[in-house]
Amino acid sequence: MNSTNSINLITQKADLIIKSASELLTLSSSFKEDSGLGIIRNGAIAVRGDKILWVGESLQLTGKVSLASEGREIDATGKVVMPGLIDSHTHIVFGGSRENEFEQRIQGLSYLEIAERGGGILSTVEATRKASFEELFLQGKKRLNRMLSKGVT
Fold it and tell me: What is the pTM of this model?
């Protein structure tokens, strides 16, 4: 970044400032941190629209970027700030539930034993085929909203 861009960023006002994060994860190994993992302790980030204006230690925030009058500031003390989680293999639309299979696995049953008892992927296929379009749509929408609220992108 050249000095002209630095000056331009400093004069901007942020819509959102998140500060005092116990850990701010940049996921950049080039960031000068002891850990070498792009973790900023007591971190802060300033955002305007869909652009990150500034990122660094909270103590360095003052004078770098200011909060717009309609902006929002979040105190992230005791929290971790990280990029959105990208779930690369998610089925949002399906019928039925296999939650009971988690308990069965914890109890030591194999996948084959669970399938022999009527569980497994075939039970999901059957439940999905039996469900109406509206049921699948509403359940899928509910799952999607829950995922988005947890930061999955």
Answer: 0.56
